């Protein structure tokens, strides 16, 4: 519904919206009240807290790294007073960024209704929805991304497979693992294949995408698992004994018929066999890179091959 | 390399590995020291902290919801002593789960080298790598997932497009937004299309996958953006004015040639035109559902159509 919709817009915009300094008088009051009460407990003077207003009606507060002897009581008074003010002003929500060494203030915020939005390394971000109904704030990342590489030697019809050491069942599968932050799908496949098997390879295409929720290895989040078709550049296996029980070049036909494997490996092995016999253009999702609307950024796009005649917008 | 490899195994297994109670005597000592020092400050008795050992050599500690008057000093002594012990025992890492109301202990842990792994709602999880070199612990979710719906009316050759209200440039695009936690790709597309435009639709296929890093709307994380082909079930537009500036059924050919759009919309419009004219089997990634290896779970798999003859493992 319309209501829900605003959420979805917000989702992408909340974080990208450049905050605007809030010039309304109510910002000053809590600022002063906190700085004064802090100064009572600290000889140092320090920058008073500023409440930044974003274009979605949200308020952002950054706790500084240094709040020498500020105590929770002073923070609680300021927060309670500020929340009253923000509600009176019709603000939608509060984002509060807290350095890990200032975490004693988290419980104070929680007592006022704040919850964790996310936390990473040395900072946590808490949020409080100020309006009626449930929060419309965007959530944090929901998926981990794993990538496997189906490395096929077209001269021999053999594909590179491994058996994990740390799995209950020793099913044959394609080597793979989780993406590092900021790593492209194809690069994850190439890195994982090399780390597990010692084989160097190059990206040819994307073959399949799997989405799975409540993944046991994803801290309760969802898992996106992609399999890429790779071309081997080297052939001599030197697999990682800590990770792999076995590693070999296996006849693709054998893998396609094998029972001793996972459903997805079997399915993609058959897809690969189809492409190997009748042309990879029947199974590939080629990749193209495009400039993003955000200056300087690029993205990679995967879809079925688009004939040249359809690339000029006419199809002629 | 092999070293790196272990990491990758760990990544999927850390969280899924069922913790085993640690029976070694060194666990008892810190437990007692903490419980005693806590009881000094609290009349209540409570369950002393237990260090759980996982099969990857990591230790997990859950701080209880109730630690009435336990002070940071007692926790710090226990933690320092425990870390010494864990290192002496050759443990790999520590996972510490802290209820939000106990967050005063986070700064204490941070002073001993802990950092945030993640946090959500009312709990934060901190980690400390105990061994040489950089941490091999698995990271948290790295991607948000956005889905758009290309709703094509095959009787008129018109496709449903919108202009966002909250964007600087008013480019025509397919309606879409971020996946809710645990929501399948196709369901996100259907929900988003309905919320933005009032049009009901059904999932036909996946058309494209885009991966983009450092996405401004993803709190510094990566963004996976998928476009699905949907079939309209209703045709009367009632768009969300808070989200959309405009919404209309536009000739697909016009959209494919239009300059006033985003590169990805233009690209997928041409792909859709190709499928509309020459057969959707040329552009579709159909979906199949499979049982996961984890009991009771299912996943959805998307790839090029696999001929029946290749579904029996023979290709014959």
Automatic annotation (TrEMBL), chains A, B:
Molecular function per GO: ADP-ribose diphosphatase activity; NAD binding; NADH pyrophosphatase activity
Compartments (UniProt record): Cytoplasm; Nucleus; Mitochondrion
Superkingdom: Eukaryota
Chain coiled-coil ranges: none
Entry EC no(s): 3.6.1.-
Gene Ontology CC terms, in alphabetical order: mitochondrion; nucleus
Cross-referenced PANTHER family: NUCLEOSIDE DIPHOSPHATE-LINKED MOIETY X MOTIF 6, NUDIX HYDROLASE RELATED
Annotated protein name in UniProt: Nucleoside diphosphate-linked moiety X motif 6
Organism this protein belongs to: Geotrypetes seraphini
């Amino acid at each position: 519904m319309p209501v829900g919709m605003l959420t979805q817009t917000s989702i992408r915009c909340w974080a990208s919206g450049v905050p605007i300094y809030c010039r309304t008088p109510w910002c000053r009051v809590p600022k002063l009240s906190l700085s004064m009460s802090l100064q009572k407990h600290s000889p140092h003077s320090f920058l008073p807290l500023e409440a930044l207003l974003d274009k979605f009606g949200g308020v952002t507060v950054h706790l500084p790294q240094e709040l020498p002897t500020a105590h929770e009581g002073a923070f609680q008074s300021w927060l309670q007073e500020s929340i009253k003010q923000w509600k009176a002003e019709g603000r939608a929500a509060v984002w509060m960024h807290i350095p890990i060494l200032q975490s004693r203030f988290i419980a104070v915020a929680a007592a006022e209704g704040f919850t964790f939005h996310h936390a990473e390394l040395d900072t946590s971000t808490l949020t409080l929805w100020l309006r009626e109904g449930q929060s419309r704030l965007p959530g944090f990342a929901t998926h981990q991304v794993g990538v496997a590489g189906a490395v096929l030697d077209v001269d021999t019809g053999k594909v590179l497979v491994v058996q994990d050491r740390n799995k209950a069942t020793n099913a044959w599968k394609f080597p793979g693992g989780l993406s590092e932050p900021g790593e492209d799908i194809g690069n994850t496949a190439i890195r994982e294949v090399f780390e597990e098997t010692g084989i160097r390879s190059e990206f040819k295409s994307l073959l399949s995408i799997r989405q799975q929720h409540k993944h046991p290895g994803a801290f309760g989040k969802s898992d996106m698992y992609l399999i890429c078709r790779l071309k081997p550049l080297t052939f001599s296996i030197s697999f990682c004994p800590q990770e792999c029980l076995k590693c070999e070049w296996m006849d693709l036909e054998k893998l396609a018929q094998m029972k001793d494997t996972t459903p997805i490996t079997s399915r993609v092995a058959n897809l690969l066999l189809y492409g190997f016999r009748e042309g990879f253009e029947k199974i590939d999702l080629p990749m193209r890179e495009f400039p993003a609307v955000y200056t300087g950024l690029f993205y990679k796009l995967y879809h079925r091959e688009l004939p040249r005649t359809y690339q000029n917008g006419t199809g002629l």
